[in-house]
């Protein structure tokens, strides 16, 4: 299980491959890997977004990400999980977040991946500031899903 | 009693600072910490609060050395 | 949108990266990529599985995979989708299936990825034969999820 | 009227062949195609049927040149 904040661009597929390569002890055990990648769009809420800054609360953010993943692992039989989240300045098409979970069964993998993303959006202390043609603005709230 | 206070994101921008320190003679709740610092300026609606990096209610008591944070709804992911 | 059957091992992350590199026209549009990877386990239904053979119905399988992805794209606002499914002889830890969908929104991406997997499991004509210590056996049915 | 028949997976193994061809004088349903080939051997329970690569009911009529398939529940993914 790994939770990481990154202050520079990362390639989710490279990270995923690298992490999965360390899971040799689980070979043959996981039948299902569910993955979500959040990527920066160049539009939001009716405006073109040129750049975005992701602020966080050092210490609290990591603690809550950890707790969210642990809660998912209590609810579903997970074999492993990986969460990477960007902070700092992002450009459109930059990955924001990667969530991956490994399980024997697809139902657990899908549900846990979804739960981690929803909890992360609802509770992990991150804040987005967008640069638009009309100047900077803070994103007021996440859309519930 | 000394309390560290942190502000984040739009709230920090609006207040014009990221941190405060409060020396209080008596035990305070989170709401009283805000009131002690900002007097009659009400806590903006939807502001979230944390004590020592755990989400906290406004009625939670703050102890010496605690870190209290005020911030807007989170928008990560 | 791409649907493919493969008769040799494939690396889902490499395929995913390669396909996403062709989606330059969608840069800045997709905020959500939901991915599912099904991998061969070395156990199933109480027995150790040494090898597996995936049979399909050439023509019908491709047609139904195509239809399943199109149905998901009618139900949810998808920007693109990729489905790769193995046929032939597999070893434990070999990828069986990759499903990836790109959307502006996470709710659509998660739901479409899930829907495609469930429909694929329920309707796409594939059949698994497992080699166990007690000899070969056909998997009788997929677990509903 | 000539009909191509295909069997897959465990059903093919049980029947001992993968294909059949049926020449029929009259129009048949899917169920009648099976009966014409396998006489009193009943269609195994849960067997799925397709006509020209589309799932079909046992009552569906089969036409000259059609491909009829019989197979067990699918287990992909």
From TrEMBL, chains A, C:
Signal peptide: none annotated. The keyword Glycosyltransferase does not apply. It catalyses: 2 [molybdopterin-synthase sulfur-carrier protein]-C-terminal-Gly-aminoethanethioate + cyclic pyranopterin phosphate + H2O = molybdopterin + 2 [molybdopterin-synthase sulfur-carrier protein]-C-terminal Gly-Gly + 2 H(+). InterPro entries: MoaE_sf, Mopterin_biosynth_MoaE. Pathway: Cofactor biosynthesis; molybdopterin biosynthesis. Keywords: Molybdenum cofactor biosynthesis. Gene3D superfamilies: Molybdopterin biosynthesis MoaE subunit. One of its GO terms (biological process) is Mo-molybdopterin cofactor biosynthetic process. GO terms for molecular function: molybdopterin synthase activity. The keyword Transcription regulation does not apply. Its EC number is 2.8.1.12. Heterotetramer of 2 MoaD subunits and 2 MoaE subunits. Also stable as homodimer. The enzyme changes between these two forms during catalysis. Belongs to the MoaE family. This is Molybdopterin synthase catalytic subunit. It comes from Candidatus Contendobacter odensis Run_B_J11.
From TrEMBL, chains B, D:
Keywords: Nucleotide-binding. GO terms for biological process: Mo-molybdopterin cofactor biosynthetic process. GO terms for molecular function: nucleotide binding. The keyword Nucleotide-binding applies. SUPFAM superfamilies: MoaD/ThiS. One of its GO terms (cellular component) is molybdopterin adenylyltransferase complex. Belongs to the MoaD family. This is Molybdopterin synthase sulfur carrier subunit. It comes from Candidatus Contendobacter odensis Run_B_J11.
């Amino acid at each position: 299980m790994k939770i990481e904040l990154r202050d520079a661009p990362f390639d989710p597929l490279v990270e995923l491959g690298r992490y999965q390569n360390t899971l040799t002890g689980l070979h043959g055990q996981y039948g299902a890997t569910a993955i979500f990648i959040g990527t920066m769009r160049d539009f939001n809420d009716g405006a073109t977004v040129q750049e975005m800054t992701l602020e966080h609360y050092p210490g609290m953010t990591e603690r809550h990400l950890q707790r969210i993943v642990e809660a998912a692992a209590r609810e579903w039989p997970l074999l492993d999980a990986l969460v990477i989240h960007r902070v700092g300045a992002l450009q459109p098409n930059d990955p924001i977040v990667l969530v991956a979970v490994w399980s024997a069964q697809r139902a657990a993998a899908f549900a846990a991946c979804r739960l981690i993303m929803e909890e992360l959006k609802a509770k992990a202390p991150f804040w987005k500031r967008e640069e638009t043609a009309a100047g900077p603005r803070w994103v007021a709230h996440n859309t519930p899903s | 009693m000394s309390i560290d206070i942190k502000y984040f994101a739009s709230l920090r921008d609006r207040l014009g600072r990221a941190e405060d320190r409060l020396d209080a003679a008596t035990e305070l709740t989170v709401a009283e910490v805000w009131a002690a610092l900002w007097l009659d300026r009400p806590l903006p609606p939807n502001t979230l609060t944390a004590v020592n990096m755990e989400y906290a209610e406004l009625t939670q008591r703050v102890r010496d050395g605690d870190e209290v944070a005020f911030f807007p709804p989170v928008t990560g992911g």
